[in-house]
Write a structure and sequence with these properties.
Elements lengths: L4 H10 L13 E2 L7 H22 L24 H29 L3 H18 L7 E3 L1 H14 L3 H18 L11 H20 L15 H23 L5 H15 L7 H5 L23 H33 L7 H17 L5 E3 L1 H9 L5 H17 L1 H5 L3 H15 L3 H4 L6 H16 L2 H21 L3 E5 L2 E7 L5 H6 L3 H6 L3 E8 L1
Parallel strand pairs: 1-4, 5-6
Antiparallel strand pairs: 2-3, 4-5
Helix pairs in contact: 3-4, 3-5, 3-13, 3-14, 4-12, 4-14, 5-11, 6-11, 6-12, 7-16, 7-18, 7-19, 8-9, 8-16, 9-16, 11-12, 11-13, 13-16, 18-19
């Protein structure tokens, strides 16, 4: 049994949907005493105020600016072509390109392909999605969500089928964009969004903790030179991230942190693990020979091939779009510059990015929430930041590979751990006593499934549970007021409330008198 079925079953057992059903007592009563307009207004305002308080507390998009480790001084949009905006977005893209390297290498290993494949996937997808996506500021590249889906395909059928799968997934995403299917992301409830970011924060933290492991698999000991160096440089980079914004805002704190931590490791001659140690020296040999070859996937174009790649491609398309569209909504709230990203353009941009990646032999990916938050925190809110990230990484692979290879992994780990800490919505823990219990259960469920399974399953499970909860609540609010032979109905009449509706009437009364059903206040 899949691990996420256990909490789903538990939540259904404790939810009202699974409790023994007791038929409600028919609400047949005389009209209550009329209240004054002032009393009605006061009661309505109080109810609306409480609803607004709970809704705002659960709305991650509204509270998104709190996710930034170092919030920018102002959210006022600067002219896109102003020198300060160009400089800020270019430096932000350069900074994020360095943080992309260990992530792309790690995801490539998960998918079972060469590290250089993950790096060029980030370059091609990052550039294409930045130019054609839904909004500026989103960072796109090789992702773990896609890697875990394609890993079984690579293991079973070989690397040759991976580009074909990603090409088909990209075409599906482009089609979803042209059909304007991205708008359906609005149906994802706020508790699912909270669970999404919390689960993703845990997943990203687990990914960073792998850098504290030895090649044998165990955690590095603090008494060993390697363990002490890793812990010390990580703590130093976190300290720099906290102090630098208080000293200067002329450069992104993350960029200065990487430079200063690398300088400290070199001056002190510390045995720090570098990007070259993780990706291999071959990845950073540089030169034009590192450029990927553009070609169609080298697999037979046949029905047999389609049967192999279609299920995986469909899953990749769905997983990628869900994570990308949720990231789009989150950045709309973080940037808060008066504009909203386009969901259909984001679908199109992710699809074209995957198509470009596949033609270059890539592994596919999607929008990355951690790097996107890091980018916005550094001041990158325009499309230029995504373009700068892709170009910086591409040029670095070819022309500055020896320099990049010497960056300590601890410098990037410290920055990403801060991003993980800020990504987790700590306020959701304080909401547990203020929001409905089933909403809290949805947050926990989505977080759990995101960690143990994947985002698509988590979002589906959370949305279904929220929909069932809503249907149950609506099915119990049907009532009737009797005035002689007239029954005035109130509440929604639909498939889930038909049983309650039928029990509101006595068959004996219906046979003894002429009955009029008044549906004025009912919704059918």
């Amino acid at each position: 049994m899949a691990p996420y079925l256990c909490p789903v079953a538990l939540l259904l057992l404790v939810s009202p949907l699974a409790l023994p059903f007791t038929p409600p007592t028919p609400v047949v009563q005389p009209l209550p005493p009329l209240r004054s307009d002032a009393e009605h207004s006061a009661a309505a305002l109080e109810a609306l105020s409480e609803l607004a308080r709970v809704t705002r507390a659960e709305n991650l998009v509204v509270n998104a600016p709190a996710l930034l480790p170092n919030p920018p001084p102002s959210n006022a949009p600067a002219p896109a072509a102003s020198p300060s905006s160009v400089r800020r977005n270019a430096l932000s893209g350069l900074t994020v390109s360095l943080a992309m390297i260990p992530e792309a290498v790690g995801f490539a290993c998960v998918a079972g392909v060469s590290p250089i494949v993950g790096l060029w996937t980030t370059v091609t997808m990052g550039l294409t999605a930045a130019l054609t996506g839904g909004r500026g500021g989103i960072m796109t590249g090789a992702s773990g969500a896609v890697a875990v889906v394609t890993a079984p395909l690579v293991a079973r059928h070989g690397v040759a089928y991976l580009p074909a799968t990603i090409l088909l997934a990209g075409l599906i995403q482009v089609g979803a964009g042209l059909l304007k299917m991205g708008k359906w992301i609005r149906l994802v409830p706020h508790p699912v969004m909270l669970g999404f970011v919390n689960g993703l924060a845990i997943v990203m933290t687990k990914a960073q903790l792998t850098h504290f492991r030895s090649p044998a698999g165990g955690f590095l000991s603090l008494s060993s030179p390697a363990g002490a160096t890793m812990a010390g440089l990580t703590a130093l980079s976190i300290l720099f991230m906290k102090v630098i914004p208080k000293v200067t805002k002329s450069l992104p704190p993350s960029l200065l942190t990487i430079l200063l931590t690398t300088l400290a490791a070199k001056l002190l001659k510390l045995p720090a693990r570098t990007l070259a140690d993780i990706a291999g020296a071959e990845t950073f040999r540089g030169g034009l020979a590192m450029l990927p070859k553009v070609a169609l996937p080298s697999v037979p174009f046949s029905l047999a091939t389609l049967k192999i790649i279609l299920p995986v491609a469909a899953t990749v398309a769905v997983v990628g779009l869900i994570e990308s569209l949720l990231t789009l909504q989150l950045l709309d709230g973080i940037v808060d510059d008066g504009t909203r990203g386009s969901t259909w353009k984001e679908c199109r941009g992710q699809g074209l990015g995957n198509v470009a990646s596949a033609l270059c032999g890539g592994m596919g990916g999607c929008a990355l929430i951690g790097q996107s938050i890091m980018n916005v925190e550094a001041g990158g809110t325009k499309r230029l930041s995504g373009v700068a990230m892709a170009l910086s990484l591409g040029v670095g692979i070819m022309a500055a590979a020896p320099m990049l290879s010497q960056i300590p992994i601890a410098a990037l780990t410290g920055i990403m751990l801060l991003v993980c800490q800020s990504t987790f919505n700590w306020s959701s823990l304080r909401l547990l006593g203020k929001i409905p219990r089933l909403d809290a259960a949805v947050i926990f469920l989505v977080s759990y499934i995101t960690v143990v399974e994947d985002l698509a399953v988590a979002t589906l499970a959370g949305t279904v549970l929220s929909a069932l909860s809503f249907a149950w609540k609506q099915s119990t609010v049907v009532s009737v007021l009797k005035e002689g032979g007239t029954y005035k109905l109130s509440g929604p009449i639909f498939f889930a409330s038909t049983g309650t509706f039928a029990r509101l009437f006595s068959p004996k009364d219906l046979l003894e008198e002429a009955v009029t059903l008044d549906f004025t206040n009912a919704r059918v």
